[in-house]
Amino acid sequence: MNSLISPEEADSIIRSIQLKRSATSIPIDSSSGHYLAKPVMADRPFPPFDRSMMDGFATKKAFLTQASLSIAGTIPAGETPPTQTPNNSAWEIMTGAVVPDDCDIIIPIEQTHRIDSQHVKIDNQGDNVLSFIHKKGSDFEQGDELIPAFTQIKSREIAILASVGAHTPQVIQPPKITILTTGDEVVPIDQIPTETQIRQSNGIALKAALSKYPISDIRITHLGDSLESTKAECAKAIQSSDLILFTGGISKGKFDFVKPAIEAELGSPLFHGIAQKPGKPLALWHQQDTTVFALPGNPISVAITFHRYVTQFLNQWFQQDPPIQQVELLDDITIKKPLTHFIPVSLKAPSYHQASLHSFNNSGDLASCIATNGFVELPKNETFFPAGSFVNYFPWS
């Protein structure tokens, strides 16, 4: 393991990675969750015509002095309106319909009553201070930006994409990911383990954690403790992946073959070892347009290093800059070793801005953390964190 660096130094190295992304077009009904590769522009004015905001009657303000108005006809939504309004008349108009050019007010139907089938009386004329006409281009002009680039597509964005006819929006191409788990002691989840074996959990857990991103191309392979098989799978993954996530086999043990296998393909790591607990052996490579994170093997270490570092890389890929979340500690904490510590916490309802520590035995004690919401980061430059301190918080996904 190389000399230990700080989490801040690791952050800087991750940020320095030059990523080779591309854009792709996908059907709009498959685009939810993806990130726009370019801004969405208005293809015409918003709204594209003077639009009635109410069911009611379109007329001229000058006609409102009359005791009643003649009903000249009906204007449904989607039809071309009349070009001229007869004197002392009004058009019955529907919400969303085009307002005739010579009409300057819509009287809501609630402020009228019919005298007969051909005449309508306007009530409360003095209260008609709103025209209820949504003027053409009053929201956006043609060519205005409606959605910035790199926005994640959700239901509102899909509505806007549809309104401008973007049926195949350009999105950032997600990375192709290979997850390589390691260990002779690990067996498939549908197999009954012996007393010396454990079931596989890291690979499927990482795939689930990745589901917060629009990534569908994820391959999971388990490797035994063999240098040759680790080298072969590593070389194969580099040829087909943008991001590779190893779990286990990255420390100093006799059967830890991940580092030499990756070095055979990509050379020396950008870093190997961070002054933190848990997750000290974390390593990073980037070369040939492929990024490799070698995470420790214990489940809590995997979860913490993924959410603390790999998510940062993925946010860069999709050009996101999420705000740093902070929570208030409800307990005093004393740190003994000069390391950055990551500690699982439970958030207190109803604000979920206060955190209680959650004890666990070690970084393999995953089940004890099931009641937690995430973890806090306690920097090594302090040894005592009194209750009331605010610290950075990372939620589980």
Low-pLDDT ranges: none
Strand content: 25-35%
Class of the largest domain, according to the CATH hierarchy?
Alpha Beta
How many helical stretches? Answer: 6
Name the strands of the widest sheet in spatial order. Answer: 7-4-6-5-9-8
Number of domains: 4
The end-to-end span amounts to 29 Å
Percent helix, as a range, is 10-25%
Q: How is the biggest beta sheet arranged?
A: 6 strands, mixed
Tell me the CATH superfamily of the largest domain: MoaB/Mog-like domain
Based on CA atoms alone, the radius of gyration comes out at 31 Å
Summed over residues and divided by their number, the pLDDT gives a mean of 93
Mind explaining what this structure looks like?
By secondary structure, the chain is an alpha/beta fold. α3 (202-209) packs parallel to α6. The protein has helices at 7-15, 155-163, 202-209, 227-240, 258-266, 299-317, and strands spanning 23-25, 40-41, 51-52, 56-59, 69-75, 89-93, 105-108, 112-116, 119-122, 133-134, 145-147, 170-172, 177-182, 186-187, 198-199, 218-223, 243-247, 271-272, 276-277, 283-287, 290-295, 325-329, 333-334, 340-347, 354-357, 374-378, 384-385, 390-395. The radius of gyration is 31 Å and the shape is elongated. It contains 6 helices and 28 strands.
Layout of strands and helices, then pairs:
Blueprint: H1 7-15, E1 23-25, E2 40-41, E3 51-52, E4 56-59, E5 69-75, E6 89-93, E7 105-108, E8 112-116, E9 119-122, E10 133-134, E11 145-147, H2 155-163, E12 170-172, E13 177-182, E14 186-187, E15 198-199, H3 202-209, E16 218-223, H4 227-240, E17 243-247, H5 258-266, E18 271-272, E19 276-277, E20 283-287, E21 290-295, H6 299-317, E22 325-329, E23 333-334, E24 340-347, E25 354-357, E26 374-378, E27 384-385, E28 390-395
Parallel strand pairs: 5-6, 13-16, 13-17, 14-15, 17-21, 19-24, 22-25
Antiparallel strand pairs: 1-12, 2-11, 3-10, 4-6, 4-7, 5-9, 8-9, 18-20, 20-21, 22-28, 23-27, 24-25, 24-26, 26-28
Helix pairs in contact: 1-6, 3-6, 4-5
